Amino acid sequence: MASEPQYIRFRSTTNPFVDRSGTQIGAKLDTQLFMLSDFTTNVQNLTNMVTNAGGAYLCFSSMDASAETAWAILPMSNAAWELGCSGTANSGKGAYYSLGLTAADGNGWVGFRDEGREKQPGSTATIVYRFGIRVGGCIIPWGTVPGVSTPSHAWDFKHSCSSQVTDSVGDVRATLNGVGSNMSCSKIGGVRLDGSGSYVSYGSWTWGGVTTIEAYVKLTSLSASQSVFDCASGEGRLSNDVALTASNDSALHVLVSTASINSNNDNNNDNNNNDAGLTTRVSSPSFWPTSTWVHVVVTMDGPQVTIYKDGALEQQLSSGQQPDRARRSHCYTGKSNVGTDEFLTGSIAYVRMWNGVAVNTSEVAMIYAHRQDCSTYTCGTNCGNGECYSDQRLISSASQIAGQSDVLCCEHVCSEHECRSGDQLKSNASSLYGQRGTDCCEIASTTSMSSTTTTTKTATATTSST
């Protein structure tokens, strides 16, 4: 028996669908199903969902009184879903449909032409048109992947540079802390954390038991302990904490604590998972490279902790535990519940979570294969604003530069927050492209004499160092 078709639905803040209403009048009438502007604020941008719609379907349905009936399922394989490539000729294209016909044109909105057809047999009521995307060849990484259970929560940081990021599956909102100072984001690179106070916090929610956590991460540097995901009922490691961390020896650590019993934790030192207050730590050595995107999936099912890297099994140990079911309100990416731990330095593309499900090896391979199918923001061979972080700008000749990288397309814009105490922006800093603080700042001086003195001290220090 064929499996039940699964649908990805565009979500709004008030309704899983964005609705447009229209009345059949027996004549040809263009009906807008939605405008691109519907997806530019607090709802998911259309670009998030489909950038290459081959194999996907638009599903229309009608609302008649309290009954909703599927009305038309139209193939999207010929649709032009090249949306949002800022500054390029493809900006604002959408798919236009005529009932019974194929995709014809794109003018910044999706709709269809009502050609006087009967909307429902025997019905004369006003139709409320609704839509969804049937899963086909194009999968969003935080949406439903064929053959894999639907995640419980999903946060995509590749398409939201605002301070709030909506949970595209559940209702736990994420907050970007440090926006505009220590944090920046791009539609290619996700949210970038600088290790100096920028982090993501999540709302509180109740979860536990069998658990899967997924993240797509690029670490810029390593330190004693940085948290990719840390979620607990309170501060510290003994408050129903679940943490995925990176250490300076490149290891991934999975830490789980149950009840907050403090010094009574595992008194027998037998690593018995039934002990109250047990804290376990499972590690995978040499896991984290730097400056490289890494796809990590961790499952916790009873004492068994399984770690996957880039779609393949990396480590499987039975010395761990699954988290207790509890309400956790101290949940972060980039920040630890241990005050002495460092903030994360690197980029996070997205985080997903499955409650009650431990995905298996074949499912992880499918998840990894779909990690960029519909999320990677590309603008053909030309650069676009979407490729630059919020503290960057397009290079003046970027339109002639081929590439998908912010290194090729963008230049750094200096700002005062990059300078240390006693330093100031260089006079030509606004046109500099370089590392943070290195090429942007100079020692501040109020008079030429103090400037000369400062220069002399600098030269002397350099000589002494040599």
UniProtKB/TrEMBL annotation:
InterPro entries: ConA-like_dom_sf. It comes from the Eukaryota. SUPFAM superfamilies: Concanavalin A-like lectins/glucanases (SSF49899). This is Uncharacterized protein. It comes from Polarella glacialis.
